[in-house]
Every structure is written in structure tokens, then in C-alpha cells.
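Lab notebook page, bench 4
Experiment: in silico fold of construct C2
Operator: M.H.
Input chain length: 475 residues
Purpose: comparison with the prior construct
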Amino acid sequence: MSSGFQELPGDIIREIAAHSLPESPRPTSVKPPLLLCHVSSNWRHVVQSSPEFWSILFVRTPDDGNHSRLVNQILKWFERAKDRPLSFFLSLEFYRPGDRRQYDPSQYESFLAQLSPIVARTRHLGLSSRDMDIFLGYLNSKSLPWNLNNLDSFDFASDWEEYVSPISKFRRAPMINLFKDTPRLRHLSIHGHFFSYHTLHRKFAFPLSNLTTVVLEETLDAEDWCSLIQSCHRIRYGDFLFDMDYFGPSRPTDLVRLADLEVLLLEARNTGNHSLVAQLANLEIPNLHTLRLGASYKAQLMSPEAFGFQHFHCLQSLILTCGWLDGVDGMVQLFQRTVNLKELTLTFDSTNYNVSSSLFKAMTYAESHIILPKLASLRIHTSWGHRCNDFYPNVLGDMVKSRSVSGSPMGCERLQSLTIALDLPPRDESEANEALRVVMLCSTAGVAFNLTNSFGDWDKERSNHRAFRGMFDDQ
């Protein structure tokens, strides 16, 4: 390596290091920032003396159960962060690989106790394990001297469903009071296992009234949902995942006002016998600007009245699985109330993609018929192997033209971008020509067009709030 590269100015080295840092830094010499310390003595000095490179760390306990070396690595890593607030993510293994023999419990008691100085400085803490009953026992230990007064964000993840202990044992586990005294805690993210039926958030005593961000991916039922949402008075961002097969009717509750809630993401799995959307009738959300109504498997058919419509007058972004509403008329009624909507994402599956033609006709501007007057971005997602011509390019093109610079009625915003995400590419030349025709129509209308096989980072805001599960897969 040339001496000139080794002796670059410190600000240039810091800039290179900042762009090379992985999303989940680990204490390994084959990845930055430790890797950069081996370039030269100059690089080592600059990188090691830059606290911003050492304030985040992801670690997993070693397979051999030897924690002393790991403790030294963690302490040395965060020592370089100086007085910066820390983000610390820890995944714990309690069994020997392949034989399911548990490691010596005393090793973990000592290991977790030695992390106390780090935890006291940690603003964002992530904990993960495959073995919930063992892990919860350690967290509930009276001998664990953790001070969480500075904690702002907490992520908790259960990694593998097949390692979850029997539900009867889980339910008998005592309440975890470790997080009860966390006066600064504002962001909570819990990823449970969908088929374990362990509602992890019930096992922790959190100061719910202070939370502004709540992400729960586990088997919530109506009682969980109602009690939780009534306790989170200051929530601004909520992301909840439900299994409708286990979602029973909720008890009648008083109207709950969530004045600060701006983003609400709801996703249902399976159809079940009861309506998730009906639970919205008990909520008053005057400042909601982003709403997701998603369905992972079968779509739910709801009448428009089930929504109540009181949540939509301020809405600016809507992500909708079309099966949530029964037919095009239901969707049109909904869109007529979203007069401020700027971004619309529609997901079609095998049960409802055939409504797209009627829906696009309804969204086409006419003198006597105007809905979504401020729509600037439309994204269409299809699953179950559909292609571009399943969406009736002629009808789609007419809708785009009516919302172009020359076609938009007075006082209506023009459509600026159209994205279609398909599972499958065009099958033959005819289908390719249909896709090309949509591209040409959009180009003529001055609308940016993107044809892709996924949305990429359209859901980036959501992923930023997710628990850190999966971060250790490449370790």
C-alpha cells in the first residue's frame, strides 16, 4: 500500500471511516472500524481517537461459553467512545451447539454484572435470545446491578421459535421489574414469535405512559391491544402485528384520545372471526398522518362503516391491502374522506387484483368526480405472481393522464410519480410492450415511472423502528 494513502490527513481518514462502517459494528478485525486500525499507525491513531466510531456495538456470546475475553473487548471498545451516549446490542446463547447442554449459569451472572458500567451509559439497549425462560430469569435476578436511568430505547427479540419453552412455564414466570425505573425510556420494540403465543410485553413492567414509539410483533389479542393502547398516552409511532385467528372480540371501552399519534401501522395475519379495524372505532386520533392497513396472508373484507372515518381527515400517507375493504365502493368511500392524502400505496393479492380496473377508473379525474385531489405519489404492489398487464394498462394510463400537468382540474395537485412493484417480469414481447406503453404514457404526462420487483426502501421508516433481530446472521 502506498505511503501516501497511509499518511492521509485525519479529516479524510475520518470521512472514509464514516462511510465504511457497517450497520451493526462488531468487535472483529475483519470489519471496520477495527479493520481500519491495521492500515497504518496514522490510521490507527485517527480511528481510535474518534469517539463517534465506537459508540455502537453488536455482540453475541461465544459458543464456547468463555465470556472473559468478550467482556474485555466490550469495555475497551466503549472506552474509546469517551462520554458519548452508547448503543449496545447483545445476543445471548445459553446452550452448547448441537447437544443442548446448558452452560454454567454462574458464568452469565458474572458476565452480565461486569457489563453494568456499560449499561449505565447506554441510551439504546438491545437484548436477544433463543431461550426466553432462561433469559428472563437472569433479567429478573436481584443480583443484577444494572442502572437503566439513561435508557431511551429498548429492543427485545426472541430469535428462534423452536427453542421457546412451553407456554405454561412462560406464564408462570414472574414479572420483570428491571425496566420499571426507566424515566427516560421513550422507544420500545419487541419481536416475539408468532407461533409461540408468548406475549412478551406482558412480562415487563414498562412505564407505558412515557412511550412515544411502540413496535410489537407478537401474538396480540383484543384485550392486549385495548389495554396497551389506553396506557400509551403519548404514543406518536405505533406498529402492531396481529394473528386474527386468535383475535377475539374486545370488551367495550371508553373513547381513547391519542392526540400525539402520527403513524399507525397495523398488519393482520389470517382472517379470523373478528375485525381488527373495528378496534379503531374506540380511538380518536386527530393528528394521524400515516396509516398502514396490511394483511400478510388472506385479506379481510370490511364494510366502510367499520372504519368510522374519523381517522382520515389529516391523513397524508396510506398503505392499504385492498382486501381490507369490501369492493371498490368501499375504497372510494374511504378515498373521498382522505382529501389531504399525498402518498398512496395499494397492495393487491390473488383475491382482489381484479378490482384494480374499476378502482383506477374511480381514481380518474372527471368534472363531476374528483377524489384524492392532492395525491402526488402512487405505488402499486402485486403478489401471487401477477404481471403488468393484470393491471389494465389502458385504464391505468387514462388515470395517469387525467392527473398530469395538462389534465388535472383546477385546484388539484398533479401526480408526480408512479411505482409498480411486480413479483414476475413480463412473460413475452406482448407483455413487455404493455409495460413499455405505461412508461411512455407516464413520460408524456410528466410523471416519473418506476417498474421494479420490490419497493426497496419505501418502508424504510418502518424498518428503522424494528427490533434488531437478524443482525447476527452473518457473524
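Observations: The longest strand covers residues 122-129. The chain has a mean pLDDT of 78.
Next step: discuss at group meeting.
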